Amino acid sequence: MHNRRQIMAFGAGGIALGGAAALGLSGGAIADGLADFGLGGADDLANPQQIVSKNGLLQATLRTRLAPELVDDKRRMLRRYNGGLPGPTLRLRPGDLMEIQLENALPPNAPPFPELADLPEFSADDICGPVGTSHVRPHDLNTTNLHFHGLHVSPKGNSDNVFVTVPPGEVFNYRVQLPETHPTGAFWYHPHWHGSVAAQIGSGMAGMILIEPEGYVPPGLPERQIVIQTVIGGDAEGFDDPQQFMSLTAPRIFTINGQYRPTIRLRQGERQFWRMLLANDFQFCPLDFAAMGLKAILVGRDGTPLPEPKAIDRLLLSPGNRFDVVVEGRDPGLHDMVRQPYRHGLVDLDGRTIAQVHVAPGGAASDLMPAPAATPADITDGEIVKRRTVVLGEKKDDRAVFDLAFTIDGQSYDPDTWHLDPKLNTAEEWTFVNTTAYPHPMHIHINPFQVVAVNGAPVPDRPWYDTHIVPAAGTLTIRSRFEDFDGDFVTHCHILPHEDAGMMMNVRIVP
Amino acid sequence: MKTLPPMALALTALALLATPAVSETQTMVDTQTCLSCHSVDGVAHIAHVPIIHGQSETYLHNALHAYRDGGRSGGTADVMQAVAKTLTDAEIDQLAGYFGSDASVVTTAPIDHLILAATEGADDRLVYLTTEEGGQRVIESQFNRDYFKVAPYVESEKFLTFCSIATMAAVLNSYEDKVQRPIDTARYPYPYFTQDNIFNADNQKVKTFEGVVTDGLTLDQIGQFLTHMNVKPMTIFADENDEGHMRSAIIEGLSDPDVRVILNYNRGIVGQDGSGHVSPIAAYHQPSDSVLVLDVAGYKYPPAWIPMALLYKAMLDKDSSSNRSRGLALVRTF
Fold first, then answer.
1. Most CB within 10 Å of its CB: which of A380, A495, B152, B220?
2. A169-208 tens-digit pLDDT
3. CB A474 to CB B79 under 8 A?
4. What pairs with residue A274 in β-bridges?
């Protein structure tokens, strides 16, 4: 029996990728706005290529390819969108329509068991599908689809539907309608096909999405996109070996906008608007702005503006998080941007320099800020119609890599389980309970959530996120409003090897 | 169907039979699962997770049942509740038996973390007595009499939850012949307060030995215990008094030879591993506005000078057992 996802594979919208399929970008590509400020040149970090909506419509082709690329000092096998690391940034206005043609030009999938390669009687479905092996270990690493992480859009049909399957050689047309009321901020797109997510994001597939009304970024305020990726630096033989890319300590290379240890320039007193995204598979990235010689003012988290800008020194970026930060050059000099040391459960990850920040003396002070943008109203006690406990766990499973599968409510991902079933236009409070010795950054699709408590301790300002850490052996209590869109999607750990090893669960918003 | 080579058959069979099935008769729980959070090497790696090797079997048994039955919940207790809900009675017995026995004790636990705590301070806001600065403060302190009275009698708590009992024993022994000590058979003919004979008949009505092993005593219960020990206790709750008043109460208690000061605080708030805790206060140092706490968990930390402002915050913490704040118990002889 095929599972639901596989049936959707060849549903409406899927057409074969022929030899004559259109190549490259479809309109709207513009130059890096940093050039207007004398930034982003040869010795400064450049923004990714950008595609902008016109007259309410963004049309783009995203073509995935696998090829060796120079990352640090040697070529590594990478999967990329349109030949970029990261893929192009998509910039839209609330209310816009986004039409994306996803062309999967990755090579054919390797046979699930090389021993069976010569036995045409057996397909992956015979071995994996019916007994669920495909839900606890990586497989079909070149099959893909798209997820629009953080967007508040429909999860159905050709919109943010992560149950779509796009095998190698196929094309799928996404059509995503943003509501007029869509929040202002930074989002991203990446593949979300259960079984190939870790391998694909871990080898480079990701790009930023910016949604904002006209005039949000004032003229005079340079905007930098800072897309942090941690591609896995295996050699060609180690590439795509699950034993490597499923491991926390795999050799990951931190890049920003595809550059290895770039220099980021600004002048003392000058402000820049940093749209930060940790577009990676596993490792957390705590940053210390004071240590970078910068003053930092946080204006948005995970695509939701703060009610008031807030001065900060540090940020913890979990895989998938975005932070919109206005930075100001404070201390002249060359400072390291360090992924601060981080205790990942029982493993200590060392600090690592991922870039350098050069604050040149003698800039002109600027008080520029992005325009104020709406924050959703706090979710009140009275709105809560249901409280749920969602238990995160792990279990021995010899079908999984390292014999370890991850679970939610006691089971690894099961496409037929639908007990998380909030009703449309209601609010609920969920407590994620982590019974493992590792932190899990939990992500819920379609609607942002408000963090109410961590380890039972109330979080006073109740920040909005769509991905937030559940501490090792701890708890995270969140509230979410399930507004505007009914339909099926998922919640999962954004440590993507955990997701591919089963830490994902269906959510159904019931009309 | 074509004949398959043996390799293919083996793989197919493996895949088809791979649904995990736990045998009904299998009661062996993997203790490694517990230890993944509760420390495999005897060192606390996750701040709020206690080490369970060699704890009391009774304590572990009761705690696991309390988690499973919902008696302990909220905050990080929800984690153990989720775990305990998957356990049978037999598995709880088995786990409590294992971790309550010497067999579970890790003999290779590195001790450098303790030495580090003693010399450098687990948190730089605290000054440990074992440092030069810590000793100097005792000498400089104008309110240090209780240190010399109480410190000789401090013994480490015998269970994780016996901080209040060990504290009462030390404080009561410090009165020497002013409070009549009970006869303890193990020390006959020398009378002495121990962590066993604190449980006289009246106190067992307040809370049994097993009950205290399970979840300790609240500040109010400490007061009730002391009324049955020929002393006059007065409890002072931090949420009813400001920092200045709590400081005055400590100084007045330390200045009066007939009074001892017992502290109930949340040690996690002062930057140490752990949460609710009880220990005697032994001195106050005016220049640094800090208080010397004679930790009855000496196996974890030596006595520490804690800044008064920080200590006040740690006393304001709500004790989930009583739903009240923590604070002080002043003990006076008649």
1. A495
2. 999 999 999 999 999 999 999 999 999 999 999 999 999 9
3. yes
4. A224, A325
CA atoms of A83 and A69, how far apart (whole Å): 9
A119:B16 CB<8 A: no
Task: Calculate mean pLDDT across residues A486-491.
Answer: 97
Q: Would the CB atoms of B77 and A389 count as touching at under 8 Å?
A: no
Residues B95, B124 within the same domain: no
Greater model confidence, A34 or A105 = A105
CATH of the domain at B254: 3.90.70.30
Answering whether pTM is above 0.80, one says: no
Residues B73 and B137 in one domain: no
* CB neighbour class for A215 (10 Å; exposed up to 12, middle 13-18, buried from 19): exposed
ipTM summary value = 0.80
> To 5 degrees, how large is the angle CA B160–CA B162–CA B168?
150
Q: How far is CA A31 from the centre of its chain?
A: 24
**C-alpha to C-alpha distance for B217 and B207, rounded to whole angstroms:** 8
Q: At CB < 8 Å, which residues of chain A contact B? A: 113, 115-116, 119, 121-122, 126-128, 130-133, 345-346, 389, 391, 393, 395-399, 410, 431, 433-437, 453, 455-457, 472-475
pLDDT in tens, B145-184: 999 999 999 999 988 899 999 999 999 999 998 999 998 8
Structure-token pair, residue A18: 């022929």
Query: Is B140 found in the same domain as B75?
Result: no
Best mutation target, A139, A435, A454, A477, to test chain B (most B CBs within 10 A): A435
